[in-house]
Give the backbone structure.
Amino acid sequence: GIQVEQSPPDLILQEGANSTLRCNFSDSVNNLQWFHQNPWGQLINLFYIPSGTKQNGRLSATTVATERYSLLYISSSQTTDSGVYFCAVDIQANAGGTSYGKLTFGQGTILTVHP
Amino acid sequence: DADVTQTPRNRITKTGKRIMLECSQTKGHDRMYWYRQDPGLGLRLIYYSFDVKDINKGEISDGYSVSRQAQAKFSLSLESAIPNQTALYFCATQRGSGNTIYFGEGSWLTVV
C-alpha cells in the first residue's frame, strides 16, 4: 500500500518562530489533507490540498503532486499551535482519477511551541 | 452543534463486553468511515461505507463490525471487547470521491 512519511517527527520552537513540516508519499494521490490534533484529541482540518498552494492566516501548504510531497508552513508560531500535525492521503484507484476514498495517515509531527 | 457527532465520547468497559459506538452526521454526505488511533500513532481505517447498502473492511477490521442504519448514521460494534482495543475512535464523513474528509470529535474507549 501507499507509504506516507512525515518529517521531522518532533519539533520544538520558541513562540514567534517559523517552521516547515514535510509529507512524502509513495503513489499518485487523489486527496491530501493536513490535520492538527489538539491536546484534547480533536482532529482539525487545516487544508485539503491534493495539488497547488493554499494559505489560511499564518498557515500555508504546498503540494507538488508530480514529486510526491507536501509542505505545511507555520509562521509566527503560537503556543496554541502545539499538538500533532498529520498528513493523510487517498491514492488514485485508476487512471481516471477516481479515489479509493480511504485516507492513509502519516505518523505525524509533534510540535511544541514554548512561550 | 457538531456536524459529525459521536456517542459516547468516553467509555470504560470490561473485557468480553459488547459495546457500540455511534456516529451521526448532518452534512448529508454519502461516505462514512470509522478510524482507530493508538497512542503516538496515526489513524488506521477499520470500516468504511460509500452508501447505505455498501460496507467495506478497512485494514484492521478483525474484532469489529459496523451497521449503516441510514445515510446519516454509522455505528461501530466491538462484539467482545479486549484490552488491546483501548484506543481513540473517530468517525468521518465525505461527500463523494476526492473531497475533504471531516472527522467527529472522537470517542475514547478503555477496555479493562
Chain B has a mean pLDDT of 93. DSSP finds no helices and eleven strands in chain B. The two ends of chain B are 32 Å apart (CA to CA). Chain B touches chain A through 27 residues (CB under 8 Å).
